[in-house]
Amino acid sequence: MRKDSRIRQIVLMGLFIALEVILTRFCSINTPIVRIGFGFLPVAMLGILFGPLWAGICYALGDFIGMMLFPSGTYFPGFTLTAFLTGLTYGLLLHKKNITYPRAFLAAVAVCCLWNLCLDTYWLYLMTGKGIMVLLPARLIKVAIAIPIQTLLVPLIWNKYLKNIIY
After folding, report:
1. Per-residue pLDDT at 122
2. Are 160 and 45 in contact (CB under 8 A)?
3. Would you say residue 67 has pLDDT above 70?
């Protein structure tokens, strides 16, 4: 890899991490058990551009940096693990692929159901001591809202705005 392309990669990763922190911390609806926002967009773009490992690392860094700079409760490393797995999933499903609505739907379902609904609910159960069945209704509503939004926005933003600028 050429030095200038490595620098370009680092700069783009830094920009997407910063954008993720801003969208997650300032452009989201937050409750103690649900966050609805647009922080998934930079993570999906990282997955498309750089693949699973880098997307996972960048999202985990973004989660950690965002929590340290703008805490919204107690830091819990489980959520950073979820962030890593989310980036990994976007990278596995979107990197070096044609970004279509069906592919975005598959990525959204995987991220929302596996990581946001199952794993994050488990982390909240460990943190709050509330039963999973108490947490589940609000989290199901979040997933029902998030899947169509992610399915629509990931291909739209990538294909219409970013693909031609970045490549």
Report:
1. 95
2. no
3. yes
Which of these CATH numbers, 1.10.1470.10, 1.10.1760.20, 3.40.50.720, 3.30.505.50, describes 3-166?
1.10.1760.20
Q: How confident is the model at residue 74 (pLDDT cuts 50, 70, 90)?
A: confident
pLDDT of 31 above 90: no
Note whether 139 and 121 are within 8 A (CB): yes
- Average pLDDT of the segment spanning 61-73: 94
Count of beta carbons in the 10 Å neighbourhood of residue 81? 16
d(CA 141, CA 110): 16
| CA 95 remoteness from chain centre | 15
Contact between 29 and 56 (Cβ < 8 Å): no
Judge whether 148 and 43 are in contact, CB under 8 Å: no
Predicted TM-score (pTM) of the model is 0.93
Q: In terms of C-beta distances under 8 Å and separation of at least 24 residues, what long-range contacts does 7-12 make, across chains too? A: 9/50, 12/49, 12/50, 12/166
